[in-house]
Specification:
- By secondary structure, the protein is an alpha/beta fold.
- The strands form 4 sheets. Strands 3-2-4-1-10-9-11-15 form an 8-stranded antiparallel β-sheet, with helices on one face.
- Helix content is about 40%, strand content about 20%.
- The longest helix has 22 residues, at about 425-445.
- The chain is globular and about 80 Å long.
- The structure holds 5-amino-5-deoxy-1-O-phosphono-D-mannitol (M6R).
- 5-amino-5-deoxy-1-O-phosphono-D-mannitol binds near residues 485 and 602.
Length: about 600
Amino acid sequence: MCGIIGYLGPHQASPIIIEALRRLEYRGYDSAGIATLDNGTLNRRRTSGRINNLADSLVQEPIRGKIGIGHTRWATHGLPNEQNAHPHNSCSISVVHNGIIENFKQIKENLLTQGYEFSSETDTEVVPILVQSFIDRNAKPIEAVHQAMKVLQGQFALCFLFAGEDDVIIVARQGSPLVIGHDQDAMFVASDALGLAGLTDNITYLEDGDSAIISQQELIIFDVNQKPVSRSKTIVSIDSAVNPKGNYKHFMLKEIHEQPESISRALESLFQSGQLNDQTVDQICQQPINWVNLIGCGTAYYACQIASYWFEKLIKIPARAEIASEFRYRNAVIKPDDLSIFVSQSGETADTLAALRYARDCHSNNLSILNNPACSMERESQRALSIHAGFEFSVASTKAFTSQLTVLLSLGLIIGYRKGTVTHEEFSTIKSDLFELPKLVDAVIGLRDDIIKIAEFISDCPAVIFIGRGLMYPTSLEGALKLKEVTYIHAEGIAAGELKHGPIALVDKTVPTVVLAPSNDLFVKTISNLKEIRARGGPVILLTDSEGLVQAGDDTNFALTLPKINPLLTPILYTVPLQLLAYFTATKKGLDVDKPRHLAKSVTVE
Ligand code: M6R
């Protein structure tokens, strides 16, 4: 949510900041802005819409300065227009912010009574004016920021410029991530390391409550008690992310195509050369586990739901999936012998991170399953496993989901085997089926032309229903989410058995149903639901295997024949055509697939 960049060095700041903002645009893209300092004077430019608008404006009328801050916004408070775009200024301060200032109303009222004036609808604007109020009482810039940090509630990553201070950027973070990049003659700030790809790979991760004074000569970091502290530098390899779209038109399509390799990498990390190969998993297997909690948001939550079915089957212990934003506030009962698993691509999702902190407070064993290296959840978890999907740029998650599933299924399998609930024979069969998966995913990607025909059909529909039973139910939820995110067509995933308890009322000739029905023990029941839909005039798109197709007959509008696969693995395989369906429907509608409206890749605010 919102991308932040800061630069201090020997070159003009704005071109460097614009390029870095482009790399952070996946965090939000409804408006953008930049501020620089030139001979002590603050310059600012803000535009609504994408970074390109800001870049064009700067080409027409450049702003000078070798120190600057930039921002790409995902609006929380106030419309996405120029007036609400960051940086926000007071008379001698400019600031960019990621997060939410929860007590901004009280602060604003207080500052208004002191005679300060506001010009935006944002929560952020209280920050420069609050800091200004301390400066006006003779505080030095860092003192003023420290005093403000004691007043501000909520989450923030802040990056400040002060008029007259051409060699100083001040930053502060609480809840929202912030990194500092070091180069020989320049210093950088970013809301995540990706923003610094191609600029530096020498990164200092700030911890919660930290603030810092950044100048060319030195970096002074203060901890949560505002005492100087030293934080180590990490080398983060982010160069490969600089030009990652290759020959594909969109990241989403590229990442869908990457799945055979990303799934292979996930498998290799756990079963290198056919051997079990992970210390973290070893440690987990040695612990008693009475209950498994699986927690995430959005797509990661659907991975949790699917995994809860797998864990109960393979480990024979209760497993529940929880939406992080619910779990964190409902005083869930979790015990030290529970294993709480947190699933997150970014490792920065505010609700999942808060849920992890809650589990830690309950002394529950915890494990995070993550993609983004060196993220907050990795630092805060007792144990972490990487899904090795590689950087995911598309806001609509694809390869991260199938890699999360691959790791979760492998984990359930290994734990079950070690605990004796999975036999040696079952273990070997499922493992070898898992290793077959990349080839089958590749074959499903090859169904592209058939999927395009279905996409053409549904692109004119007002709504789409996805149904499935067992493992296909949470898979249908993911299929519906993907379609909603990138096509803006209303879509619902429904447990097929629930249809006649209400949702079947939605069925008519304009609302198609995607039926997920691999030929397994629930197949016949799902096909009965398909018939009920057909009897009411609803168009049906059937996803099944060749065996299922024969049994289902030809009472469908479209049928997609997928390879026959071990039923346990069907969520991974059946997700791929749903991703492609969403993608091709969105492109048919002429939508910007990689930047769906109102969304951002990393949800670091509640
Ligand atoms: O980074 P995370 O995995 O924690 O993100 C969770 C969700 O925000 C994310 O999966 C979101 O639902 C995606 N846009 C789905 O495509």
